[in-house]
Amino acid sequence: GENVEQHPSTLSVQEGDSAVIKCTYSDSASNYFPWYKQELGKGPQLIIDIRSNVGEKKDQRIAVTLNKTAKHFSLHITETQPEDSAVYFCAAPNFGNEKLTFGTGTRLTIIP
Amino acid sequence: DAGITQSPRHKVTETGTPVTLRCHQTENHRYMYWYRQDPGHGLRLIHYSYGVKDTDKGEVSDGYSVSRSKTEDFLLTLESATSSQTSVYFCAIRGSRTGELFFGEGSRLTVL
Question: Is residue B62 classed exposed, middle or buried when 0-12, 13-18 and 19+ CB atoms within 10 A define those classes?
Fold first, then answer.
């Protein structure tokens, strides 16, 4: 099955600076890589995803990059704001996309 | 709003007692999932369902059983709760078009 590793486990950045979270995966057949954001007391929510036919995808201040050769993908948040403080999870599919395997999460804190 | 409700939202129970958590969806989605969330482990899949009466194990299924007798309900049962099952449990449904997971608000279970 898929193995997903996520780093760092905690990250603190000054408001306005950029944050980068990295994940690696093991199954070279994986073709879908979502990122979820979890705010305190709530369930995770999809914020961006990328499929293996592209190397980068952007949505306003959020971007995801994918390197299929190295089997890693990253979340980039620019111009960070206090509302970006949350736990972020990467994920990769398992067994034909029926299941998602999640990373262990990154707690991002934006320092005002 | 993805139309997912979990019940109960909070439960405290004693070791050895049976516990059932309920996930209810109003969206008529085929795939439903139960994850547990623990510090340092992220989200780990317990069981999932791909249709009425069709279920399969995830990576941490020992000590748990599930049932799906109707499309809208997915039940997670701990036959004899143990302290190691103290966790936050999340139900999720998979969007039919995009494959995105929509999570419920979570059920916090404490086993004393």
Answer: exposed
